[in-house]
Write a structure and sequence with these properties.
CATH superfamily: Gcn5-related N-acetyltransferase (GNAT)
Structural class: alpha+beta
Number of helices: 3
CATH architecture: 3-Layer(aba) Sandwich
CATH topology: Aminopeptidase
Strand order of the largest sheet: 1-2-3-4-5-7-6
Distance between the termini: 32 Å
Strand content: 25-35%
Shape: globular
CATH class: Alpha Beta
Amino acid sequence: MHIKYTYTDGNNNDFKYLCGFLDAYLNDLVGGEKNRQAYLPYNTVENIHDVFIAYDGVNPIGAAAFRYYNDDTAEVKRVFVKDEYRGRGLSRKLMNLLEEKAKEKGFIRFILETGAPLVAAMHLYKSIGFTVIANYGPYRDLTESICMEKIF
């Protein structure tokens, strides 16, 4: 296994390909897309200009992204690693790369939305310094959402 990481944007076809896997994973987790309807408008790739993709050789195997939320805050989006590559530290590396890029761009805080069924994601975020906050923005009234932040 030879893993390399590439910086790109939300228009990248490999990123879109991986987002398809993430959506299928989430659909399986919650019993179908109809159970995620309230979240779909917030998980598009528009306005995502900062993406890291992990490759095993030429095969895209994971990704993580952020988008502008406000002058000092970036919102983490679309973090995903294919099943067969989980447990190898790839998500942690992707998140570290995201944070470095966010700092480089002048952000001082990450926010994100996740949910209780995403046990591994919650564990990762807490292990790298994220804490639970009140639901923000479009997730304010979505009771299944768990929002988190990390101040750099």
